[in-house]
Amino acid sequence: MPNAVKTKVTAKSRKNAAVAAVIQHPTLTDACDLIGAMLEYETAARSKDIDLASGRFAMLTASERQVLRAELVADYIRLSAGNMTGKTGVYFEKSLQTFSSKICDMSVPSHELIGTYLAAVDVVSKGDYLSKVEGLIDAVRRTMITVLQSCVETMRTRIERLSAA
């Protein structure tokens, strides 16, 4: 009979397992809010004659897309961390504006943004972030709706500027 391996279950590992279980099962409200924001982003793009399916993002090679995806995940985690405390409002707003501009400049489709969100949740939940940065996972979960809303506003602002010129 093989020897059984005993593992020590600590409060920290129990907490991480509990958090991971919560992350794997978002609420229906979370999903509805995210889908609603995603549809608003797609609708705003279409109404502004922006074709997300054939934008700059679609023209990238597969390896360039992988690099951009990794960059978006890192930027998104950094942005979410800035959205945690409320003490860094100016920093968060500027970072949000920069991130949204990058997304709009590249015409990133909403399904890629959702992939960015899911990858960020995965990175944060599987790394040591949970034990080192209290509340980061909550910030990661709630920031994507803000990002999508900001992208919609960025598109509207750009079109208004073009119309006024």
> Helical percent range?
over 70%
Please compute the radius of gyration using only Cα atoms: 19 Å
Low-pLDDT sequence parts? 13-24
**Spatial shape:** globular
Instruction: Supply the number of helical segments.
Output: 8
Overall number of domains: 1
Order of helices and strands, N to C? HHHHHHHH
Biggest sheet character: none
Please state the average pLDDT score: 80
**Percent range for β-strand residues:** under 5%
Structural class: mainly alpha
In total, the number of strands is 0
End-to-end separation:
80 Å
TL;DR of this structure?
By secondary structure, the protein is mainly α.
Can you tag this structure with a few keywords?
0% strand; 165 residues; mainly alpha; single chain
Model description:
- The protein has 165 residues and is an all-alpha fold.
- It has one domain.
- The protein is 77% helix and 0% strand.
- The longest helix is centred in the last third of the chain and has 29 residues.
- The protein starts with 10 loop residues before the first helix and ends with a helix.
Layout: helices, strands, pairs:
Layout (H helix, E strand, L loop, with lengths): L10 H14 L3 H20 L8 H4 L2 H21 L6 H18 L3 H17 L2 H4 L3 H29 L1
